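I would like you to sit down with the pair of lines that follows and say whether tokens and residues agree.
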Amino acid sequence: MSGARNGLAFLKQMIKFRTEAKSFENVLQGVRVVGGGDGKCTCEMTVMEEHQNAGGTLHGGVTATLVDAISTWALMTTPREVPGVSIDLSVSFMKPVRVGEDIVIDADTLKVGKTLAFCSVDIKLKSTGSLVAQGKHTKYVG
């Protein structure tokens, strides 16, 4: 595996390109990459008004998008260097996040097999470290 493809510099460059494109992923423009490589990706984001639901907290769809995208970014830093195709994604919501709060998103590639990859994502409040959501993502990489 090339060192450039599995590190933080690769993640930052790739994510900048993907979030600035005219695609769905531009909803992630506020995501900041703070670490990653070797199957991991750590990001931070401040929850803004455009991320809120009618109750004034982080929308579940945004949370699911964070799980989907950031676990994919982590997967792209493994030796396979592929984004894969989602076949299963689940999110457990444990605590609301209010507008203005900072969250930390930690994605980890648990296993990459011949055809499937398994990823896990923890989303925590930056201020307290308390878990607000947890996601699992299975991808076809065949």
Observations:
- The chain has a mean pLDDT of 92.
- The longest helix spans residues 60-75.
- The chain has two helices and six strands.
- The helical segments are 8-20, 60-75.
